[in-house]
Amino acid sequence: GAVVSQHPSWVICKSGTSVKIECRSLDFQATTMFWYRQFPKQSLMLMATSNEGSKATYEQGVEKDKFLINHASLTLSTLTVTSAHPEDSSFYICSARLPLGTSGRAGYNEQFFGPGTRLTVL
Amino acid sequence: AQRVTQPEKLLSVFKGAPVELKCNYSYSGSPELFWYVQYSRQRLQLLLRHISRESIKGFTADLNKGETSFHLKKPFAQEEDSAMYYCALSGKGGSEKLVFGKGTKLTVNP
Q: Which of B42, B86, B90 sits opposite A43 (nearest CB)?
């Protein structure tokens, strides 16, 4: 249980175009999802926290107008990289958290991660 | 500010040897500490968290508030333990974001 998928797994686009990445929780409802960016051989950098039905909370230094996040349902969050440029090329990873208070092994702040999306902007 | 430091980028041990991956943190409140692992070509997954006080795959980690550390240990490393290990921290309450260390790549040699 607690599987998170991402689509696409990789994408190549031209500079100036927009790219949408989907993150889905397959077998649970996630009121909160997170979007990370990972540069080669570096750690995960949190970009934003996505809350279902409300605006995303962006981390300092992350342009909200460039990285649009929509969390329209309890199982889907999307990240749209607008007017992508080569410097946006990176590995984007989403995670989803079970609702607070969920009993069992998973609960509190355990996040379930998607497999990631490799974005290459030419 | 929340900060997680993993001083070793790379760690190499032989099979059967003990292994310790270091993690130090900085946080003004009461933290929740986690270890996540990423095996080759797989997604990041939770290995263990300090509040559970459990041993997963032979790994244990004790939260030392005096030394602000949460080192990951295993007495006898196995080749299948080779992976990238990330220490992470969040504030208590469940609504806090996770802050990750830079990770340590563990290689267990035969």
A: B86
